[in-house]
Amino acid sequence: MAERKFYDVHCHVMNLSHPNFVAFMRRFEPMVKENKLKIYLGGNLLFFSYFLFSTLSPRVFNWVLKRIGVKGMVDRVKNLLVIMEHDAGSVFSLLEQEVGREFTNGRKLIIGSYNYDKIVLTPLMMDFGYKNMTNPHLYYNSIPVQKPIVEQVQDLFNGIKTYYALGHREERLIEIYPFLGINTANYELAKIEKMLEKYFGAYRGKAVDFQKNLGKFTGNIDEMGSNFFSGIKVYPPLGFDPWPEEREERKKVELIYDFCTARGIPLTTHCSNGGYRIIDSGTADLYTSPARWERVLKRYPRLKLNFGHLGNQGKRRDQWEKEILALIMKYPHVYGDFSCRGFDNRYYQSLKQVLNQGDEEFKKRVRQHILFGSDFTINLFWTDSYHNYIKIFQDTPYLTEEEKHTFASVNPENFLFN
User: Fold this and answer.
1) Are 4 and 119 in contact (CB under 8 A)?
2) Domains along the chain?
């Protein structure tokens, strides 16, 4: 009997050297705006405490944070930073221990009446680069912040090698098939072509090809070839424009879409108004919008494209989600994952309402193109652990067992390997 697998199609394994740290700090902007009054009052409390007692003890600091209601947020940031202090191999081992301790029976992940032999993670690499960084008010802005993707590649695949060195592949609960991050704005056309040929030239979209390379990284990136990466990740708020007006930039993205369409290579794009951002918010929204991608899909209707976060816009209207659902109905290989959204039953209740709207064709088609994703480690901003995120999905009464299996196993296999 073939192995049954549970897929997390949207996760990240990064250490503190990988992100552009100014972009990392910008993740806090929405939180600061939402808690502006509390932070202002808390800051004044701390100031008067120091003024009166000429010291600021950790006990007083924690008391103030709790009183203004942001201590939970601070603790979660600390929790995230602790994970990012670890190397990738340690993170994979921690996840295996965590999931194995909480969810497995006889080394099988249990979701309702479904048993899964393996958990498949697809860590999405992010090409932070440096060319589009805009901080004109900073003194050292004249020195570009260089974050070459090659360092992420080496760290991630060394981590995968370390994880599989702990035992035979068959004994490991987790299989790891990363996506290569590419920001076309950071490279010349010839460089992009070389990268695609190197990492995807012999791509067939067969799981067995990737399994053969698990843990086989030699430590030398020059010796890597096809079937180490299972797909490509792009990230518009980092300056990636899906459909540039400038001719030379357009050629770069067309090269990727031509290559992916011809070989069936899956491509995931960030689609949320949150996240890492190195360009102004207006341009980031323009590039991220599903409407920008509809231009791509008109030209490449068979492109295998996943919209990460299912168009989440926070407290704003769900316009992007509606646009993604329309694209799912129009194009055969468009998907959406609900990573970094399933933090409580309220979300799954709203997802159920989406699934039950429209006619029978809509209900069937959408159910076949929704994917489970966690956005770990970034989701630690809003939850305490990987275990918590999966448990909420496991226990929610708003999805049937069949729907859970479809979103976390059937659909991801179609996205990745068919």
Assistant:
1) no
2) 5-28+76-417 (3.20.20.140), 36-69 (no CATH)
